[in-house]
Write a structure and sequence with these properties.
This protein is 75% helix and 0% strand. It is mostly helical and 480 residues long. Helix 6 packs antiparallel against helix 13 and helix 10 crosses helix 13. The relative contact order is 0.18.
Amino acid sequence: MITFLASIALLIVGYFTYGKYVEKTFGVNTDRQTPAYTNGDGVDYLPMGEKRNSLIQLLNIAGVGPIFGPILGALYGPVAFLWIVFGCIFAGAVHDYLTGMISIRNRGAHLPELAGKFLGKVMKHVVNAFAILLLVLVGTVFVSAPADLLHNMTSSWLALPIIIGAIFVYYILATMLPIDKIIGRFYPVFGALLLISAIGVGASLVITGAPIPELTLTNMHPDNAPIFPLLFLTISCGALSGFHATQTPIISRTTQKEKQGRRIFYGMMIAEGIIAMIWAAAAMSVFNGSAGLNEVLASGGPAAVVSEVSIAMLGAVGGTLAVLGVIVLPITSGDTAFRSARMIIADYINVSQKKIASRIWIAAPLFVISFVLTNIDFTLLWRYFSWANQSTAVIALWVGAMYLFLSRKNYWIAAIPATFMTMATFTYILNAPIGFGLSLNVSYVAAAIITIAVVTTFFVAARRGLNKDIPLEEELRPSA
């Protein structure tokens, strides 16, 4: 398992080397007050400690994405390890750090506000629609996935509608109440469960000498699905995820000092990458190759893979704890997905969130829509989620590139992954049945033309932005 262990080591080294370089490039201001103090409202804006924020950030971003995505990505074989490692270090963690820190510099603004400021007013409306779509899809996926796992774990004696209803009740409370009442209070317990499950499965892989395949660029997918662009959308959380851009502003509003940003934003993405590596490796080793894994996925989906891997690696008791840890992941991202959606809508229409009545009338329609969507096939939901997710990541990376360009700093750290993922997302939507259904070769050419146009537009807008002298730390008007 040289590839597996080397990949874990590279992720850790990446945090201490490239993570430090990204922090130095951005330029931390140790004297500047954060939104937790300047905008304090006791609901969304309030200071919390670095360890607490780090754990909340990890649980916010680590839904089923770093588990279900890598399990589906494992069908391609060990080439998936490359995207997890290099995607996480050079794209995902950069994406999370820049989104979080730029938000801190702009009073905890969410991605639509930042896109409007740095990419133009039209982008504010586009990103707002994208963000709400993504968050509702995330919230729905993160209701369905843990509900299915709990339904299977209880041998189906607990009715699925009851489980779904209970999860929705929790989501409503977590969305409405101040962040330190439920999220800040219960996440340490959830975090322990998450770490136990991930460490347990990872340690078992090493101790038992699991037959994890070594690196090869061969496409092992049973259906011969193309690596580009599908792998880069299938594995999102754990490598690069636009969902994170909707979550980091939650913690940017509770961060005490800018210096804490590397650990909270860059570091927790690296931690998610390690979780993704563990589950991708487990999926590759337990089912005797892609064909065996594909059979389990066809019969029971990723949830069945999680259950079988957990019990095979850790036994009945340990496996149950591991499954509980996996159930915690989506629930602790679903609640903040709806919370983010409420905050983004409130910012967009400029409605104060101090009164609970204001929170209720904004959030209620979101829950109704999500409940209706739970009746849609999970696989179809995941495809739409994957595209919306990575499209949001592309926008967030271009926002980061623009901020650094206007700061006269090394913007390539964001522009290169932004360009790559622009090509991937456009290729996907042009080729996919849920998109335009064009042939793959035509999609490659069309996506390349669109990507060139996007990059050209970026540089034209960036040079104009230098002349406009856009204030990088402008105090955006808060909603609360």
